[in-house]
Records
---
Amino acid sequence: MGIVWDINIERPEFPQLTSNLEADLVVVGLGGSGLTALLHAAQRGLNVIGIDSDRIAAGAAGRNGGLLLAGIADFHHNVRKDFGVDRATALYQHTLDEMDRIEATTPEAVSRIGALRIGELNRGEDAEELIDTYAHRDALLADGFPVKDYEGEQGVGILIPSDGTFHPAKRAVLLANLATKAGAQIFTHSPAIKIESGLVTTEHGSIKAKHIVVAVDGNLGKALPEIADQVQPTRLQMISTAPETKIKMQYAVYVRQGWDYWQQLPDGRIAIGGGRDLALEQEATDLVEPTQIIRDYLEHKLEDLGVTAPIEHHWAAIVSYTNKGLPIVKEVQPSVWAVGAYCGTGNVVGALLARSAVDHCLDGHSQVIADFAS
């Protein structure tokens, strides 16, 4: 049924790789993280080539909820417990810094007015969720990060003013245009059939390069079979409505420990995702097709919110999770870097780690990677 992000967005066409080329660095996978790496490498003066098996941002990078949220997959108070205050604080600050870069690089696609974590949609309900929401708030305050209490039309919870939203497809197009203007080459519909140190091979061509960054998420295990046992492909689903005229939602929202999330777009359409916990086994898949059980759940969620606009789109995307809740960023072969398995938070973390992988290739060190991998 299409994707709401493709409305009025014209993606540029790029050629298929049909020859044998050489480069300083190759980026495999041109979603938000890969395009960030491509642009960063070009800006650092490298001869860089990017390839994708489909069009740019064809996977989750162009099919997600459009939320820009600081931190990693788990909430900050839980990260402090699991990894210690110092590491949790460093990870959170890294994502804040990356959000600043995202906004500065593609301001036309970003809105940083804040986002809500709602602990109570209806007065008297969700007491445990509200308690946890305030624990989240207290941890952010303790470490000096911005957060405010919120009680208003969208419920009761906290407002994180540094968060926001973005338009996934628009950002991808802007990044691709910036990268090519900086000298990067892009080839689409050119799946990598073999990745080894110094060489990426496709069906109709190859690229020799000193450095390779494999920046994919849902298909990370397919691209690099040596780490397939470390990632679990997972389907996320969303629906969107026609423009809603009766309700105005100022902020993007996430609820139920982040299982559900939604935002109202500037044209009035509402995009909502979630419900994966209703069918965890079914959604642990690399099949992109959306399902009726999740659609029904999301439609009922919209009804509870008072939304009456009809459903226009229902789509799915594949991401990857790890057992530890931390993404993968590591050298899996000499000079071959794997970046992915963002555990549902690839919009910021993916861009951050892909950029940092380029820096590590050139400088031999990245503090971001050290903090994520320690």
Note: The first strand starts at residue 20 and ends at 28.
---
Amino acid sequence: MKLIPVLLISFFLIAAKGYSQDARISFSSDDQALVKGFEWAKKQAMAYVFRGNDPVGPWYEAALPNREAFCMRDVSHQLAGAQLLGLADINKNLLSKFAAAIAESRDWCGYWEINRYNLPAPVDYKSDKDFWYNLPANFDIIDACYRAWLWTGDKTYINDPVFLNFYEKSLNEYVRRWDPDGDGLMEGCPDSTSSRGLSSYNEEKYGKVGIDLLAAQYIANLDYSKILTLRNRPAQSKDYLGRAEKIKTHINTGWWDSENKLYHHYMQYNGKWLDDKQMMSFLLRWDVVPEKRAPAVTDHLISVVSATGMEMNTYYPLETYRFGKAEEAYKLLVRLVSPDLKRREYPEVSFAAIETFAMGLMGIKADAATLTIRTKSRLTSATAWAQLKNMPVFDGTITVMHEGHLKSTLTNNTGSLIKWEIQGKNGSIRIFPVKSGETKQVHL
């Protein structure tokens, strides 16, 4: 699908309205492949943003194009890119819609996909007994909410009753409803004719449990443990941390294929394994994989890129950067924004690319709890220097520049004193305070 005129019109209308944060972020570098790729990704992503008078409120497209809708997995993955594009308010609106939709009548599922009319998308929902739902979704939304908090410091994600109800119901009633054997681990719907309760984002109907479901359940428990710590609930926080650790141990013992040095994907209802190892990217994304196993997992994902669907391809560049393979990650990022890539107009592609520029290439992470910005240059020999300017974070913006692995600069345009934590190429970490309005340069 080519970028259609109505979406271009949307982009220019947004710019004309003057939303203070929308699309202010910019990227500059001596590497023109990256510059052109970023400019395309920014323009394409903003073309999917709608700030008109739709019943659902401000939203961005996060589903198959032309559905005029947003689904739970896509929003969870597009969230960081949207934050960087100045769309924190839209992230909160979409996440709140999903959180409010959870219901006992749907066995504590919500709506997988919501359209611009503030209704469950008809293509996925017929009734509370007949609808499409991927079980990792509730947990993915919990992780998205926690990550939104880290970037913004918006206490809605920590204190709002609608969000808290969603976290509690998803990690308790939801789990019990989809855990027929009572072992604390969820299972998909055994009815192969039903899509109401698929056990993996790979959406096969014959899997009892998908490893991405377990990994999602792990990260959601871990995130909620951290939220409870922020809420000064130490005993409850410890409980959810224990649940998370139990699931992580289960994954790394029962699901590790020692012969192939990779993880299994599906446990079928007949007790046999069904493997589609592209889904291991979720294990990397949610930090389930021990350090000693990560190289084998990352190498495998890189080897299957050409045979992987577009949706899953969008996860690979960031995780490849994060797990220490910058040269390979650079190639994956350039490929993701290349005009030659088929289906690159799929909404997730451009948002994921923006995320990868910031969190992968530039190694930027935010932590609102401590007002910390972490950076790590992952530039390769193809790129002498790179700068991301006006990235929305906390109550303002920051600008980060890396000059190879020799020097980094941070400008603090928030209203707070920021703690800047810099990780060098050798893993060493140094910490510097950066005052509001200050620019600090550090030799690495």
Note: Residues 1-18 have pLDDT under 50 and may be disordered.
---
Amino acid sequence: MKSSDEHGTAHVQGKRIAAARILQALSRFRKHDYDGPIRSIAILMAGRYGDSILLTKLLRQLKAALPEAELHVITSRTGTEEFFRHSPYVSGTFCLKSGIGAWLKFLLTHRYTVLFNPKDLPSTSNLLLSTLLRARIKVSHSHPLHEGIFDRLTAIDKTSHVTEQNAGLLEALGFDRKQYAAIRPEMPRYPVSEAVRVFAESISGQGCIGINLSAGGPSRYWTTPNWEALIRQFPEEHFIVFAAGEQLQDKAKLEAALENVLPSPPTASLGEVSAMLRELKLLVTPDTSLVHIAACHDTPVVAFFPSDRTAMNGYAPLSSRSTIVASDTHLVRDIGVEAVARAMHRLLGEEGRSTG
């Protein structure tokens, strides 16, 4: 006998399939034969900051392949829209939370050469958007419920990194993704406070290690006692602490309790985090957006992951020197201090050999 949760999941899935079938039927009336020049590309971005940072790799790849094309990003969050407004590669942004009036105006006044939906599984909201938005070529990843709604479908390996999955758009447009594989994600240039600017300059070249207390959910947090024990194992190193929200109190405690933790100003944006992180010789962090900010600067990373192979494959650090410390459970807090210390010693040893 099925549980109520199973019945609920089946009901939601059934509604999603029914909606997709309706949209597939409506899409039969579209023309699917455009082969002209590509002047504009719109990308649907429903993810959070980590996904947004990783998407900048695709934006840079598209600009390299199609330097004259305008790139637009349509987001579901005001914070990520602000992120892309600061990007030098993006010509226009739109947030889906802008209100019905702005929505109608946007639908009536915008038409693109290419629309890309990077979701690998059917999402009712993304499929509806993909149907309503006007574009000559609509691209998404291969799935039976994407057929008909999209003109071109990419064949992706779902065990590959998210940036590799995104690069399927290049192949759908006739480019060789390998030609642009070396391009890295890149942080936009946010405004930075004077306090953060001065602090970042003060640690430049000092070889500090960053630790990040914050995470995307309760299962991803490491405990403050673990962080303190880890720092105590490296008395000759200097640390700075990143934190947000409730973890700001723990940051203050570590700065007060440990002499080798440098007090640092609070950060008000990803841009301020980036300004400090780029000056580090190593970052130690749970699987959060900071992993991907580090990749923008090629800062070495020790990243904590729960026991989730899909997440480890899809969101692995892209820094040229990095290591993943995985929990044996779905809880990051079950990772031992010694396992993290060994990973840090290994990367710090590599750093010493590369500069010695």
Note: Residues 1-8 have pLDDT under 50 and may be disordered.
---
Amino acid sequence: MVPVPKIDIPSSKSITNRLLILQQYKNYHIKINNMSASADSILLQNCLQQISQSVPSPFVFVDNCGTAFRFLCAYLSFTTGEWILDGSPRLRQRPIAPLVETINNAGGEIHYMEKIGFAPLKIIGKQWHTKSFTIDAAMSSQFVSALMLCLPFNAENARIVFDKHIPSFQYINLSLKLMSQIGLNIQYKEGTIYYHHSNELLQTHITVEADWSSAAFWYLYVGLTGKPLFINKLTKSNIQPDAQMVEFMENLGVATTFKKQGALIEKTKPMPKYIETDCINNPDWVPVLTTLCVGEQTQARLFNIKNLQFKESNRIEALQKELAPFATLTWSNDTLTITPHTLTFPQQHFFHSYSDHRMVMALAMLKHQIPQIEFDDKQCVKKSYPDFWKYYNQLTW
């Protein structure tokens, strides 16, 4: 019997990045074990170290890290000083207005230095005494998380009010669960976050879980190749939204068996010829599901995906362009319709990367169908998964 290959995945950058912000509060003593080594987490950590220096540099550069952009926009507003927050040309295209408007309406002071609604920002940080924030989070749940993570820096007990029917709500729940886990008095009820200060000195050690967002690409590998794979240290999670991949992929013929050392992923039955799914809580699945449908000749409708326009690339447009030789992808009324039209794939193909880690990792899994795949920027995967190519190249296709 051929042994099942084993791979490692990184620890969760979503968890790591939230803990890095919470770690800045003077009453916390949080030790983060198994911290993410992703480029995004290292960037955020370096920015926070720069900000905390006795003579800090006022210019904070976040490259194309949307998480750092949103989290630091809020954090710097609560950090005394004058700051310039900027990033790459692509980051300057990623909207920030709802968060800026909320902070300014609550008594903060953020100025647009060039185009209204976008970086670069001039932020005047100060001590806050605010009791309520109201925010439009339709564009990004991270706007809410950014404010939540800063509530301990506010002098007053406070609440955050937002529309509960928003995309990626489960990432707000991730922030809520992490804050509760370290002992903070925070609750959610019907579209409102309630936070109450505690006088207790919080001391805790947290071990960051393996990253389910990265695991999704190996489910794609199993789905497209039919070959089993063992993911070391991958465990069930009740806080990471992408852990729902287990139940979802089982319906598509890819099963998960949890063992002491990790998780065995196996293809158990053919994929359905048509699927339809709401991606409102898991938008990062869209490149994975689209690639799976194209490789498996499955028609699909993926809806509630409009926020993919504001990721590292416009992922809707990028998927349409890159997969056009193999499928017709139509986006209308916030629904992506996938109609594969290629039964025979070429021996080789070139894909544009758009400097987007998730696009590259998803499209790379078509190697079973297209033996020679090239990209213009393979290394952008370091943003979330520095060792991706190491394990990719060890596998048989």
Note: The chain has two domains: 12-207, 212-394.
